[in-house]
């Protein structure tokens, strides 16, 4: 008699987390782009915060199973790294000219042209959110279809950090300032409470950053222009996440006040710093689902249009973008929904 076994092998389709690396030549130098997913699907473009790349800025969101399923089943993800922030990046030559924030926004357009993308959604974190917002303001709309912005908060100037980076590189003080920028006090721990795993992982990744490369990005942001007038004219739908303990909380509120309230919403996440994608990624799931619902995107997906068609929705209910629907002041672990019978 042959061996018997109670085990059953089931082949389940799961989104792939393996990406393909591209180096794209732009008008302002080369840019590293990591592409995840099926390139026939609609495009989601990401841009990280200062001193980070997609591994240290969006990994938490994509390691959240429900969010990963929602995003990778509906989109092909194009992670754009700021110059010199890609994995294994060497120090940029001092002979290379300093880039401005406008140069970085122009690089976004060159990357989209390289991949032949007609319509995109964008997800940025702090400094990356500014670059993508600037891109949306400067290129309205991209190739005749709407742009859509998913945003964390605005960026503030820090001359002390700039000087430290220039003279001392990625020293211990710089790392502590950056971690304070990214995470809430609770996540960073104390003498009695250890750092959270996500903070420890980010600290290790900061060890790999080249100080002068980070300084160049910071200098571009320190010289950025005011885009308040552009925000008032921006018509792409915008979803802004901000942690209630973020050092940029007031900037996020200011940005929200300038956007058209008919097509924007603010989601405040409790017990969280500025990097919601890493510290509380699960809190983003329900607002993202509501946001994507207007474009026929679900988990699991039920796309009724060609993946290459523009992402303009047939209709989207204003209630989907209301603070009540989005869940203002989301709980850090779960969002409870009360149902009337």
UniProtKB/TrEMBL annotation:
Q: What is the lineage of its organism?
A: Eukaryota, Viridiplantae, Streptophyta, Embryophyta, Tracheophyta
Gene3D superfamilies attached here? alpha/beta hydrolase (3.40.50.1820)
One short Pfam name that applies is: Ndr
Going by the entry's taxonomy, the superkingdom of the source organism is recorded as Eukaryota
Q: Which family does it belong to?
A: Belongs to the NDRG family.
Q: What is this protein called?
A: Pollen-specific protein SF21
- PANTHER family in the record: N-MYC DOWNSTREAM REGULATED
Coiled coil (residue ranges):
none
Q: What organism is the protein native to?
A: Salix brachista
């Amino acid at each position: 008699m042959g061996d018997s076994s109670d085990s059953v092998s089931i082949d389940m389709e799961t989104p792939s987390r393996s990406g393909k690396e591209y180096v794209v030549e732009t008008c302002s130098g080369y840019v590293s782009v990591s592409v995840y997913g099926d390139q026939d699907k609609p495009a989601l473009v990401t841009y990280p915060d200062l001193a980070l790349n997609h591994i240290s800025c969006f990994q938490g969101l994509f390691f959240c199973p429900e969010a990963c399923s929602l995003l990778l089943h509906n989109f092909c993800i194009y992670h754009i790294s700021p110059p010199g922030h890609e994995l294994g990046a060497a120090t940029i030559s001092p002979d290379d000219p300093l880039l401005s924030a406008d140069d970085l926004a122009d690089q976004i357009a060159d990357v989209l042209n390289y991949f032949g993308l007609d319509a995109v959604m964008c997800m940025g974190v702090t400094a990356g959110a500014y670059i993508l917002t600037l891109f949306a303001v400067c290129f309205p709309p991209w190739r005749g279809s709407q742009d859509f912005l998913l945003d964390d908060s605005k960026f503030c100037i820090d001359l002390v950090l700039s000087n430290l980076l220039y003279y001392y590189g990625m020293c211990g003080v710089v790392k502590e300032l950056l971690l304070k920028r990214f995470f809430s006090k609770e996540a960073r721990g104390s003498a009695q409470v250890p750092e959270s795993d996500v903070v420890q992982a980010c600290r290790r990744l900061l060890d790999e950053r080249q100080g002068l490369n980070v300084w160049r990005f910071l200098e571009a942001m320190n010289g950025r222009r005011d885009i308040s007038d552009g925000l008032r004219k921006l018509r792409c739908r915008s979803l802004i996440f901000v942690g209630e303990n973020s050092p940029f909380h007031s900037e996020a509120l200011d940005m929200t006040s300038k956007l058209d309230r008919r097509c924007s919403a603010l989601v405040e996440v409790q017990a969280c710093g500025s990097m919601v994608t890493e510290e509380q990624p699960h809190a983003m799931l329900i607002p993202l689902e509501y946001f994507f619902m207007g474009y026929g995107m679900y988990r699991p997906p039920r796309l009724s249009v060609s993946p290459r068609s523009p992402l303009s929705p047939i209709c989207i209910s204003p209630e989907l973008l209301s603070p009540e629907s989005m869940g203002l002041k989301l709980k850090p672990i779960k969002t409870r929904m009360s149902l009337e019978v």
